[in-house]
Amino acid sequence: MASPLPAVHDTPDPDFAELLARRPHLKAHVLDGLVMDDVPLVQIAQRVGTPTWVYSAATLRRRYGALRDALAEAGLRASIHFAAKANDSLAVLRVIAAEGAGADVVSEGELRAARAAGIPAGRIVFSGVGKTEREIALALEEGILQINAESAEEVERISAVASAMGRVAPVSLRINPDVDARTHAKISTGLAENKFGIAYTDAAALYARMASLPGIRPIGLAVHIGSQITEGMAGYRAAYARVAELAQALMGRGLPVERLDCGGGLGIPYRDELPPSPAALAGAIKATLGPLGLPVMLEPGRWIAGPAGVLLSSVVLQKRGQNRRFVVLDAAMNDLVRPAMYDAWHGILPLAPDLLHAPLSPADVVGPVCESGDTFTRGRALPDLPPGALVAFLDAGAYGATMSSTYNARPLAAEVLVDGHRWAVTRPRQTHEALLANQLVPDWLGATA
Ligand SMILES: *Cc1c(COP(=O)(O)O)cnc(C)c1O
């Protein structure tokens, strides 16, 4: 089988100092090495083991606040609904909930997690292309803020479920604006070829139908064009302009439109990207949707949580191949799948103070999983990393733990929240016993031991 090709970059990788300069919650301390807020990461790795996800509460708060402030400064009446699929840790959701955030959920599990973290149902949006009747019923029972419907079939289903319950479902229509967000194909959602949303040309008729159906209160329109959007505001502007035009047309026909959902997708710098700022996003919303004077909603996931997290890992061994150095870690693609799935680049920093200043040479950083795709990076400038050396993958706070699996019968990694000088395990490492515990062997196969 051919080896996966390394992602091609035409600029040099940022060095350790450049990576740190853009991440205010991380510092290289002379004695303690890499420190998150006031906690040396070596201390967490030694006490909890590796691989371990570590999240900075201060960073979650700071980034949520920056988004909220940018929207307020643009003069928008806006609410923020954190996309729980980016990070559904109860502790992380709790930190964001305490700031006043709502949530955007795409499953019963995420709805339950958001509620368990103290996010009121009245601040939760239910998105996704395939909500089951059970999920719709649970959302209505909880008193959800709104359900974003993605098809005519789903609108009928919501109407039927709500009517049978004697409820009225608040429903927005997710529009597929057919615009190119210019992001990775696997995380682009706003093109007509993608499975998401209702074709722009069908939306007005469906909205009118919604207004006539029992059990449905039409709330407005929603749009989400993709994730990790870094290439300017053109895609956003085009999508919001279409939403504005459609909302105007609906209101012109006397149909009620209460608010508009602008989705998420704002990108973050993993390597040297220069994504649009929250102010630029707020400006684009203001310019396109502002004239309608309606409240707007935002569903950011990655932008809030991505930079707030790291994945700590230990070096199992360094393998000298034919003119290549392989650093084999105890973290793998089952923990952090983004490099294998999206060719994603993550900064990798050693934790020990001396290793942050040691001579560098190229290394391929890999996990122990039996797949060539279990390669985090190739040719990365890293110091000599002997067995037991500790490293941190940067910007692993979004689509990290939530996308992990137990492939190769590897238990789920532990999770830790850092809050100033305090830190706590928020999810203990899964045990091998737990990994086997809920399996059953039919008795006709005979005793197992
Ligand atoms: C995934 C998703 C989001 C969040 O996307 P980010 O890129 O993490 O901001 C928001 N809304 C919907 C409907 C989504 O599917």
Describe the protein in words:
This protein is of the alpha/beta class and about 450 residues long. It contains 13 helices and 21 strands. The two termini are about 40 Å apart. It binds pyridoxal-5'-phosphate. Homodimer. Its EC number is 4.1.1.20. This is Diaminopimelate decarboxylase.
Properties at a glance:
449 residues; alpha/beta; Lyase, Ornithine Decarboxylase, Chain A, domain 1; TIM Barrel; 2 domains; nine-stranded mixed β-sheet; eight-stranded parallel β-barrel; 24% strand; globular; binds pyridoxal-5'-phosphate; EC 4.1.1.20; lyase; Diaminopimelate decarboxylase
> Ions, cofactors, ligands: which are bound?
pyridoxal-5'-phosphate
Dominant shape = globular
Q: Which architecture name of the largest domain does CATH use?
A: Alpha-Beta Barrel
The proportion of residues in beta strands is 15-25%
Query: What is the CATH top level name of the largest domain?
Result: Alpha Beta
Number of domains: 2
Structural class: alpha/beta
Number of alpha- plus pi-helical segments: 13
How would you sum up the major sheet? 9 strands, mixed
Rounded mean pLDDT score:
95
Poorly predicted regions: 1-5
Give the helix proportion (percent range).
25-40%
Global Rg = 23 Å
